[in-house]
Structures are given as C-alpha cells and as structure tokens.
Amino acid sequence: MSVTRNLPVALIALLLAACGEVAPPDVPFLAHGDDYQGKPDFARVEHEAPLSAADLMKLTPDNVARLSQEQVDQIYARLTAGPVPDGAYNGTFFFADGGGVKRLSEVMGGVKGLAVRVKLDKLETIGQMLWKGKVFYRDERLLRNMIQDRKLLKLVVDDPDALPKTDIPGRKIFGLIQDDAWLLFPAKLYCGQSLLDSRRESIIIDYAYNDEIDGYRERPDFLAGRRGLRIRDEIRMVRPGFYLGRAYMGHVFLLNFTLYSETVADSGSTSFRQTGMIAEDCWPGSQRPGRLAALGR
Predict the structure, then answer these.
(1) For tag attachment on the chain, is the N or C end more exposed, with fewer CB atoms within 10 Å?
(2) Burial letters 41-57, b for 16+ CB under 10 A, else e
(3) What is the pTM of this model?
(4) Cα pseudo-dihedral 172, 217, 204, 226, rounded to 10
C-alpha cells in the first residue's frame, strides 16, 4: 500500500473556500480498500506515514470532520492519549462516511439509504444544539457533559431548577451575556484499552456506573449508564487543547467527536510544535509515536 497525501488539496481548498466550506487537512494516509481485509494495519500506518507535530497542528475540529471514517481511524491510531484534560472543553460530533451509524445509509442504499442519511443529518444538527462539550475534573477522575438548557428538556430532567450549570467557553450572546449549560451525564475517567487500536491506551470516559457519582440524577443520567444505552467514550490527544474521540454503545461504534479548549491550545502549541513532546498519563505503547519519529527523536 502506498502513502497518499491528497494531491489535489490546494485545488480542493480553493474550490471549497469559494463555496464557504472547510477543506480536508493535508496530512498523509495509507491507501485502503473498502472491506476489512483491505484496511492497513495501524502499526504499518504509523511506521510508513507518521504524523509529525507540524501535521497535527494542521488538524482542526472542522477539517477532521471532512474525512472518511477510515481516515479518521488512521489519525486516531497515530495519536497517544496525552494528559487527562482538566476544565471545560467545547465539543462537536460528526458522522463520517463509511463508519458508525452513518454506514447504515451506505449499506441500505437507494431511497431507504437516502432517508437514513437525511435523518442522521437532522440528528447531528439537533444533537449539536443540545450537547456543547465536556467538563473534566482531572483530580477526581470524573467528567460531566455540558447540555444546553432547553425548555423541552425540563420535562425529562429531575429537579431542573437545581441543576448545576457552567459557562460555555467562548460563548457570549451578542458579545455581552455569557451562555451557560447544564452539567449532566456524569462519567468516570481512567486509562484503558482502546476498542479501535489496542497498541496503546486511550483515556476512557465510562458511564457504566454513573449512578455512583455525586450529583447523579436518575432522569436523564440513567440513559447513558448500564441500565440505559451503555455509552463508553474514548479519547486521544491530537495536540494541546484538542482531543479526538469515539463514542460506543454497548461496544458498538456510533460516532466521532472532538473536544477543544482554546485556552490550553494557546498556552501549549508553541512548545508542542517545536518538540512534539507531551505529558502522558496513559501507557503510550511500545511503538514510538509518529510525531517523535518524524522529528528523529
């Protein structure tokens, strides 16, 4: 398999810019087939197409969402977990072509497939209106999700007036009033095996026993736990302030998401660009990360 770098990226960027759209990132990938047998081994991807610190600096929450699922997977596999985050991170999620629930529309095809795709697009829009990201409590190894306060949600939330709230980073209404969000769906944080790439650990966001966490509300928090949808997330760090995540329901992959903190990105990017070094709270595996291999470290 050969390394490809999206050769017409400059042309694509010009065309997308004219349409007001985001171009896919110009980083290397290994060629792959459509079936499982045609996908490259992740160790080979990292060896033949390492992502340098400069490559990782090109990645953004917007342009990663332009990639196919195989490309997102290849990026994720070349990352390490990095440090467990602390504080509030803005979040976005996306369904990539060829993976997760979006694959249903491709498998079904025709009118039914189109109908599924339209519904997923609506779900993505509605979901993004409600979910604004995650707040990490690093020392406690806990997390809560930022959910936008919506009148309809009050019907399914226990004692909504008593819910703790937090400011959504970077969100001000008309530049004056700080927008806030409820803190719901608590989860435990720990290092554990990735369900995609077992060569190194990821940071696991585990909702299974969220009813043991202080502040748990039966409605709606149970939905994410072991008596509900059995959600399990995992994340790895792209670069300081930016994490790429994967959400699973009962070990079945659902969707991708990104977490971004502008404050952390501003303070840590210069050193990362120069050295590629980051603090690791989880086991980084025995294969040298591509960003260090690219620097000859």
Answers:
(1) C
(2) ebeebbeebbbbbebbb
(3) 0.86
(4) -140
Check residue 17 and give its pLDDT: 45
Domain boundaries of the chain, sorted by first residue: 81-287
DSSP the chain: --EE--TTHHHHHHHHHHTT-PPPP---EE---SSGGGSPPHHHHHHHS---HHHHHH--HHHHTTS-HHHHHHHHHT-B--SPP-EEEEEEEE--TTSGGGHHHHHH-HHHHHHHHHHHHHHHHHHHHHEEEEEEETTTTEEEEEEE--GGGGGGSSSGGG--EEEEEEEEETTTEEEEEEEEEEEEEEEEE-SS-TTSEEEEEE-TTGGGSTT--HHHHGGGSTTTT-EEEEEEEEETTEEEEEEEETTEEEEEEEEE-HHHHHHHHHHHHHH-----SS---SSPPHHHHHTT-
Closest CA to 132 of 88, 162, 96, 164: 88
* Per-residue pLDDT at 73: 97
Q: How many CB atoms lie within 10 A of CB 14?
A: 12
Residues of the chain with confidence (pLDDT) below 70: 1-20, 99-126, 128, 172-178, 294-297
